[in-house]
Amino acid sequence: MNIKKIIILILVFSLTVFTACGGQDTVQEADNEGPEDVVEAEKDTSNGKDEDDTLTVAIEMDITALDPAGHNETITAYVTNMITSRLFTYDEDMNTIPQLAEEWEYLSDTELKIKIFEGVKFHDGSEMKAEDVKASIERATQMPKVSYVVNQVEKVDVIDDYTVVINTKVPFAPLMGNLVHPGCSILSKKQIDSGNFETINGSGPYKFVSWQSGNEIVLEKFDDYFDKDGVSDFEKLVYRVIPEGSSRTIGLEAGDVDLVVSLDTNDYNRVNENSDLVIIEKLANHIWYLAMNVEKEPFDNKLVRQAMNYAINKEDVLEVAQNGLGRTLNSITPDEILGHVKNTTYEYNPEKAKQLLEQAGYKEGELEITINSYGDEKGGPVIQANLLDIGIDAKVNNMDRGAFLDLNNSGNFQCSLNGWTTSPDPDRFFASLIHSAGVGTNNVARYANPEMDALVRKGSSTIDEAEREVIYNQVHELAMEDAIWVPLYSKVLVMGGSADYTYDGVLDPMWNVNFNLVRKK
To answer: CA 249 to CA 259: how far, in whole Å?
Structure first.
């Protein structure tokens, strides 16, 4: 380890002592909060790992909802994607493939006709029909957390019991890929009409059993699951909420859990060298970024935002947050996204950052960086140390996940450390994160630029891919010029699992984890 890294780690440790304590207390309190401590579909007496036919999965935090259209979070989707099904899904190479859809064709640029499989059963035994598809997709257009993926859908027409036509307001190139989103899961019309989503009547490979807030979620295999190739080897699937990374690893080593979804990168070698365990990993279609609230001082000044981009050493942030497992970002999206433009303007340059702050009239002052206990909070103190070098005294406020999201949505913060996982099509990324319609939800920077809005809409309504690429080149360039974020890194998603099982096709670059494909050897 070189001297520079040693100095950074010492500084990070010392700063963390002053910033992490309050956040940790908040997390512990949140584990016991919620409208109900236990939500049950039926009595569960299994106690998870006590049964041989139980797959026990450790997750780092609790889910926030059972309603697939009531959240927009990767961890919650680990559960809801097992309970529900969608018209389309992704394979492990990010190709859009059918799930409930048997046949589909574009009747025109604004009409997508889809026939679903006959005989698909919901967990209550009723058969899925076209009316259920219509009710689910049209509901998604009205749900604030997920509407951005289907905001161009005008209506859904029912042709017969198994056929619908999805009509869009304008040509909408990302439609099929966006229908993969968990928010587009198909629920029964009966449940939607009832307005009761405390339990979910889905058609996925597992049925909901119980949810003990802050503790565990229990599902059981659905014997009538329509995809016979995707039938689970396990009778039960139990998610255990274990916030502390080393505790998840210890549980894996002891056999108390079979799979750790987010393995602490500090434990990578430890697990990799254990013959009883295996590593499952994939570079994610994902970004970590520092969002600056353009409505709040000092970030209402573009020069200050640009200075932040010069001030932060991304290599050091990645090293401390993820032990270097990933790649630093030079633009606002991962390299694979259509229209990505490599930006070489913002190299790490503290002196340039100081010059821009002086030009902006910014005097030495204080600001608050909001982070949450989601593993990558370890990068916060590195950013804090970098800012101290240019005369900014930054306080790191480590919050529990729920409070963090509420604060982001309210706009009552200066800057916050965020993550986002995106589909291969750039529209889901841009329409949510940098279009003005996302202010108050996923557009954390609260960035509203009519020129950007027009480009984003033009990109989604253009069918020709070469033309779309040119448009998204412009989106990238404008976003980096306006410097609404400091893009930091894409990380490798690392899971640790028991060597008693195989994990072929379980993980894709969007962090979709198909637990039903975990197989016994």
So the answer is: 9
**Burial tier of 83 (Cβ tally within 10 Å: 0-12, 13-18, 19+):** buried
Question: What stretches in the chain show pLDDT beneath 70?
Answer: 1-51, 373-376
- The token duo for 77 is 């989707």
State the CATH number of the domain containing residue 515. 3.40.190.10
The two structure tokens encoding residue 168: 């869009």
What is each CA distance from 411 to 370, 445, 447, in whole angstroms? 12, 8, 11
What pTM was estimated for this model as a whole? 0.78
The answer to whether residues 112 and 185 belong to one domain is yes
Q: Is the dihedral of CA 513, 514, 515, 517 positive or negative?
A: negative
Q: Which two tokens stand for residue 80?
A: 């809801």
- C-alpha triplet 82, 33, 441: angle, nearest 5°: 65
| Alpha carbons 5 and 470: distance in angstroms, whole number | 40
Q: How far is Cα 385 from Cα 203, in angstroms, rounded to an integer?
A: 49
Q: Which domain holds residue 215?
A: 39-83+199-283+495-520
Helix (H, G, I), strand (E, B) or coil at 330: coil
Host H or E run for residue 26:
helix 3-30
Task: Give per-residue burial for 140-176: e unless 16+ CB within 10 Å, then b.
Answer: bbebebbbbbbbbbeebebeeebbbbbbbeeebbbbb
Q: Are residues 153 and 138 in the same domain?
A: yes
Q: Which of 168, 194, 220 is the last residue of a domain?
A: 194
Which residue among 156, 178, 194 closes a domain? 194
pLDDT in the model for residue 24: 28
Shared domain check, 487 and 422: yes
Regarding whether 413 and 325 lie in a shared domain, the answer is yes
My answer on whether 72 and 139 are in the same domain is no
Confirm whether 26 is domain-assigned.
no
Which CATH number fits the domain that encloses residue 141? 3.90.76.10
Residues 331, 303 within the same domain = yes
Q: Say if 314 falls within a structural domain.
A: yes
Using an 8 Å Cβ cutoff, are 121 and 128 in contact?
yes
Q: What's the total number of domains in the chain?
A: 3
Residues 74 and 101 in one domain: no
| 327 and 455 both lie in a single domain | yes
In a domain, 422, yes or no: yes
- Matching residue, tokens 């257009």: 141
Listed in sequence order, the residues at least 6 apart from 269 whose beta carbon sits closer than 8 Å to its beta carbon are none
pLDDT at 40: 64
Residue 15 resides in a domain: no
Structure tokens at 511: 């962090």
- Give the pLDDT of residue 15: 41
**Euclidean distance between CA atoms 455 and 451, whole angstroms:** 6
d(CA 88, CA 179): 6
HEC per residue, 102-115: EEEEEEECCEEEEE
For 499, the token pair is: 């060597």
Q: What are the DSSP calls for 40-102, one per residue?
A: ESS-----GGGSTTEEEEEESS--S-S-TTS---HHHHHHHHHH---SEEE-TT--EEESSEE
